[in-house]
Each structure stands twice: as C-alpha cells, then as structure tokens.
C-alpha cells in the first residue's frame, strides 16, 4: 500500500478551504458539515451513502453535500482514493449566489452525485490553483464560472413538505445542541425540549436531519473544535473546551470527520501566520 498524503489549503482571496487526499483507505462514518462540500474523485471507487440513499461513485464523478446533508463513504474492493474538494461556508455561498443570480438565497444541490460531470475539469483547475497558492485574476474568474455552472445544472428549489410543527421542534433541539455542546446532554432533556417521547424524537430527528442527535452533537463539537484549533489552541485544550471526554476520544472523532488529526489541522493555520 502506498503512502497516504493529505493536503489542506485555505484560500484567503476566495475564503474557502481546499482538501486533497491521495492514496487514502479511510472509511468515513455517517456525519455532516455546516458548509457546502464540492468534491471530485480523481481515482478510485467508493460506496457513498447520503440522506439515506446509496451511490457507487468513481473516477471523474463530482459530489455535492449541502450544509447538514448527512453522508458516509467507504472504499470498494480495498481501492485507494484520490480526492479533491472545496469547502464553502454558507455565508460565502450566499454572497456568491447573490452576485451570480441577483437573488439572496442558499442554493440546494438536488443530488449528491454528478456522474462523469462536465464541470470536473473546471473544478480540478480551480482546485489546483488553490493548492499552488496562486494569486491571480484567473482563479477568481474560474471560481465564479464554476459556481454559476453548478447552480444552473445541479440545483433546484427546495420542495420539502415535512410538517412545519415537527420541523420547528427539531430545530429547537438543534439550536440547543449548538449552544450547549460542551455540556453533558441526555436524551431525556432533548425529548422535553421537543415535547416528544424519546423514541419519537429519535425517529423525527433522524428523518429530518438524516443523522441521529448524538452524531449531530459530535459534529457540532468538531466544528467548534476546528475554530479553536484555527486560533492556535492545543488539541487537548480544544477537546476540553468542546465537551469531549478526553483527547483520544476527540482525536478519533476529528480524524473520522475531517480526515486529519487535530494537530495536523492546527498546524495549517500556524503555518499560514508565518
């Protein structure tokens, strides 16, 4: 088995992250991100699960995850994966979308997979410029043209018909988890917040969010830990600040969700300050 390589760049011009994974075998458990992910499979095959649907993805395919879309993936036949992706925060996507369309909204990708997408080459080109830390007009132009094409071809209006009352109750639980993530949280308390019994909460939360309350909580904790690490906080301190029981528990979740150790992620931002 070849050596794994994981590279991350933060582009200050575009305000987006770019990841490149080469030769990885890692299985990613069911989780979500608070930002958009636009990825490209350079080599390899994966089984992808997203919002309770399964896909087989491979070389040349482009993938999309909206914020909060739950997803998981694993290798097929022990094939290694070469993968590039862009991580775009909702506020950046909203700003760019408004500039492109003239409308103030967050686009929603209708499917997580675009097989053999015609936009793969443009995505690859933009990603490589970010990896090479290019500061040039072409990079910004390419970014806007890519997002324009993706919006036009792969997004559609939201047609969710879930009960408004139930969605509001689940939203209250999510807001509670996002505020109290560093505390010890019980299912009993979450059920009281939602005014449901525990099973009804689990069933409704998982149906609406596509992920369990516990996995949602851990993802929020990882997101907050990323912010602390970006400020230079040591991994142990970040673990304590965000409610993890110990550093090893924190490191395992961080590696599972992000694909890097907390120390590797922290070092990216320390290096950028030099």
Give the SSE layout:
Layout: E1 5-11, E2 16-24, E3 28-31, E4 36-43, E5 46-50, E6 53-57, E7 62-65, E8 71-75, E9 81-88, H1 90-101, E10 113-114, H2 120-131, H3 137-154, H4 164-179, H5 187-194, H6 198-209, H7 213-230, H8 235-241, H9 247-258, H10 262-273
Antiparallel strand pairs: 1-2, 2-9, 3-8, 4-7, 4-9, 5-6, 5-8, 7-10
CATH level-3 fold name of the largest domain = Jelly Rolls
- E-strand count: 10
CATH architecture of the largest domain: Sandwich
CATH-level-4 superfamily name of the largest domain: Regulatory protein AraC
Instruction: Please tally the helical runs, counting DSSP H or I stretches of 4 or more residues.
Output: 10
Biggest sheet architecture: 6 strands, antiparallel
Distance between the termini: 34 Å
Return the average pLDDT rounded to an integer.
Answer: 90
CATH class of the largest domain: Mainly Beta
Percent range for β-strand residues = 15-25%
Question: Helix content range of the residues, please?
Answer: 40-55%
What is the N-to-C succession of helices and strands? EEEEEEEEEHEHHHHHHHHH
Ranges where pLDDT stays below 50 over 5 or more residues in a row are: none
Number of domains: 2
Using only C-alpha atoms, the radius of gyration works out to 19 Å
Widest β-sheet, arrangement of strands: 1-2-9-4-7-10
Overall geometry comes to globular
Give me the secondary-structure category. Answer: alpha+beta
